[in-house]
Structure formats: C-alpha cells, structure tokens
Amino acid sequence: MKNRHIAMISDSGVIGTGLFLGTASALHTGGPIGMLLAYIAIGSLCYTISLGEMAAFLPIPGGHLTFAERFVDPAWSFALGWLYWYNWTLVLPAELSAASVLIGYWNSEVNPAVWITMCLVVVLTINMLGAGAYGEAEFIFASIKVVTIVGLLILGIVIDLGGGPSHDRLGFRYWKHPGPFVQFNGIEGAKGRFLGWSAVMTQAAFSFIGTEVVAIAGAEVKNPRRNIPKAIKRVYIRLLLFYIGGVTIIGLLVPSDDERLTLGTGTAAASPFVIAISNAGIKGLPSVINAVILTSAWSAANSDLYSSSRALYGLAINGNAPKIFTKVTRHGLPWVSLVFCASFAFLAYMGVTSGSGKVFGWFANITAVAGLSSWFGISVTYIRFYRGLRAQGIDRRSLPYKSPLQPFAAWYAAIGCLTVVLISGWTVFLKGHWAPDTFVTNYLAVGLFPVLYCGMKVYSRAPLVPYDQMDFETGLQEVLDAS
Predict the structure, then answer these.
(1) Are 345 and 354 in contact (CB under 8 A)?
(2) By C-alpha distance, which of 148, 361, 124, 195 is closest to 262?
(3) How far does the chain reach from its first CA to its final CA, in angstroms?
(4) Cα–Cα distance for residue pair 197/184, rounded to 1 Å
(5) Cα–Cα dist 409/99, whole Å
(6) In angstroms, rounded to a whole number, what is the distance separating the alpha carbons of residues 32 and 346?
(7) Sign of the torsion angle spanned by Cα atoms 253, 211, 264, 284
(8) Residue 457, pLDDT score
(9) Which one of 142, 310, 344, 482 has the fewest beta carbons within 10 angstroms of its own beta carbon?
(10) How far apart, in whole angstroms, are the C-alpha atoms of residue 66 and residue 314?
(11) How far apart (Å, rounded) are the C-alpha atoms in residues 33 and 251?
C-alpha cells in the first residue's frame, strides 16, 4: 500500500456504523453528557494503545501477534491471536447484515439474502485482488466518509445556531431538557446517571475498535518506518474531530428521549444526524446519509476480512494455526486464510429470519468485548517490550516512533480495558434483566482469553521470554534495506 492509502485509512478507517448508527442507542441510554464522557473514556484508552511504537520499529508480518511471541511468550501470542481473529471474523457478518438493511431502506421487498450475497461478493473480490486493491478501495471509501462527517459537523453547527430552514436556535437546549444524563432504568440520583454512562461504554468501544489495523498493515506498506509513524500521529484527527466532535454535535441536536433513537430497524432513519436534519426541516438528505452509511458498512466489512485473514496468516506463520494457512499467491496474498475467513460471512444469513438489527447487536457486543480484550493483550505486550529495550540498552529515542507517557500510558490502557470488559454486561445481573444472549455476547471473550492462554501454556510449557533474550533483530535489517 502507498502512503496515501495508509494515511487515509488511519484518518477514517474505523468510521462506520458505530458512529453513524450506534450513537443513537448511546444517546438514548446515557444522554448527551453521558455519551460524550463514555466516548472520551474509550478514546483515551484507544490513544494509549502503544502498538504503533512496536509496529514502526518492526513492521513485520503478523504484527502484534508476532510481537506477543517475541516479547511475552508463545502462549500469549496464541491466545491473543485467536481472540483477535475471532473478533474480526465475527464482525464481518455484522457489517454485511447492516449493509443489507441499509439497502432495504430503498427497497424492502427484496429478500435480504440477495443484498448480503451482493455485498459479500464485492468485499471478497476487493480482498482477493490484494493489498493494493484493498488500499485503493479503502482510500475511496475513507475519502467519502471524511467529506461526509466533516460536512455533517459543519451542518450540525449551523443547525444548532439556527441556520436551518426552521431558524430554530437550539444552543444547549437538550442539555437542559431532558437533561445531560439519562437516569438508567429510572434509578434516581448520581447512581442512575453513573449506570447510564457505564452502559454506553461497550457501544463506544465498538465505534473505536479497529484502529490497530494501521499496524497490522505495516508489513504491506511502502517505507513503513516513515509512513506508519505519520499515520499514527494522525490519531488526533480521528479522536478529536470525528468522534468527540461528532458525539458533541449529536448531543446538541437531538433530545435523548426521542423515540426514533431506538435502533430497532437498523436503518439511517434512526441515525441522530438524520433525525437532526429532519427536525430542522431539510429535505432530500436522508437518502444521501443512508448511502454514505452503506459505504461505511462496506468499508468496515472490507477491513474486517483483510484483518481477519492477516491475523490467521500471522497465527499460521507463528505455528499457532495449521500450516495450510501460510499458503500465498506469487504476489504474497494469503488466499487460503482469506477464503476460510470469508466463509464465516455466511453467519450474516441468520438475519434473514432473526432480524438483521438483532444479529448486528449480538456481533457488535462480541466485537467490542473481544477488541478490548485484544487491546489489553497488546498493552501487556508493550509493557514487556518497553522493559526489554531497557534491559538490552536500546535507547527509545532511536526508534522511528516513540509513543508518549510511557510506560504509564500502557498500564492505564491495560487496567482500563480490563475494567471495561468486566463491567460490559453488568445489566444482565439486575433483577428482571437476565438475557442469555447479552450474557454470552459480552462474556464469551472474557472467558475465552484465559482458557486459551492457560491451555497453551500447559501444552507448550514455554516460559516467559527473559528481557535480555528478547528478539529485536530478526526482520529488522530487511526493513532497513527497504527504507
């Protein structure tokens, strides 16, 4: 991939249905301030994930899965790799389901299976053409998303200040009534507000999961030691402008008690941006926004398949998956891994009978929790990487990219991610709120990670890699020669 590909992917690669649609339920559950604080909290965790420093130093195949084996132990790489693969593989059918529902916005009479099949063919074709085609497609999708989200932010400010057709100046009206927070389940006082905020954390995490795709793509980027640091530094744009700015504007434009915020249909009719545009009396934009959300779903599905296939390939080259998944074309495309991961997209057809909106919700929970668990694993890997550098006398100032506030940022990310994961499904433990599907989708990954690690630890009996024996050399010369 070229510099412009990785730069655009870093800017908007994770913008998708989480921001355009997921913020509806977030606003309805937490209120404008509760939603904003949840996104700030998860955004801070996202920013302190220190994979970029390792990826810029050693942009090698397998990314953080290879780093986990070198800097922790083979069992950690095994558990982290399969969890990461599980994460990206299961979000693929979710995005395909979302795409089929979005197309149904214009034509609801056709069986959703038709749209799922069409979207799957498009995504599979792009990925089969290789990293260059993937990068080019993502560049186009990301460009559309950047233009749209910037336009929506500007339009939102104009509407809030009374510049819409209705000339109704909103200001901070909805922060006052129905209020800055939503009292969760009608519980009064600070407790209800706190519970409302914490209930939004998983949805916020779903929006941010995927930022590490920049580092995963490191081995397929031209001049990675120069381009990856540039891409990582652009994280400020993602966090501040797109997400924090976006949820702030949404909280100003739409009241949290608006009934249209329920994502029962899963279409753009429930998008806070569309609700705001409709309230302002602007006609003609709902279909445009729906089309953009559709490209976002396609883009997300495209990245899902790319990331899951590379994760499986990384597992295989590290000996943690069958060797057949190391097979590549003469151009380096891991085609066996790609086809295998694409087969899980057929889970999207569950939405034909169960409802695509419900299926999307299941997979969104799975993705958020598994993604946060992966962030926890990456943070632990970085902490050991940091200590290994010190033990071997390698000056961090000599690295192509040095992440700030280390190692404190990594500890913050590890503890924060673990905490959010453990409380992700707390609502099911309330009296009268037990839901088996919610419990399974929130806590399956929580139990999966330690089972995989402990099982592999017992099987391999491999000790933790000593700090003074960590491998910082293999693959480095090839990177320097190519730079």
Answers:
(1) no
(2) 361
(3) 14
(4) 8
(5) 36
(6) 37
(7) positive
(8) 92
(9) 482
(10) 7
(11) 7
- The list of the chain residues with pLDDT below 70 reads 1-17, 61-62, 101-102, 104-112, 212-225, 227, 231, 234-237, 263-270, 350-361, 431-433, 437, 476-483
> What's the pLDDT at 115?
74
pLDDT recorded at residue 352: 61
Q: What is the model's pLDDT at position 126?
A: 83
Separation CA 67–CA 470 (nearest Å): 10
For residue 415, the model assigns a pLDDT of 94
Helix ranges, 104-130 (H): 112-128
CATH of domain 3-462: 1.20.1740.10
Element (H, E) at 143: helix 131-160
| pLDDT at residue 235 in the model | 67
Helix (H) or strand (E) holding 476: helix 476-482
- Report the distance separating Cα 413 and Cα 64, nearest Å: 16
The C-alpha angle with vertex 451 and arms to 447 and 457, in degrees rounded to 5, equals: 150
Token readout for 60 is 């090698």
* In the chain, domain spans: 3-462
CA distances from 294 to 144, 207, 213, 269 (A): 11, 16, 20, 13
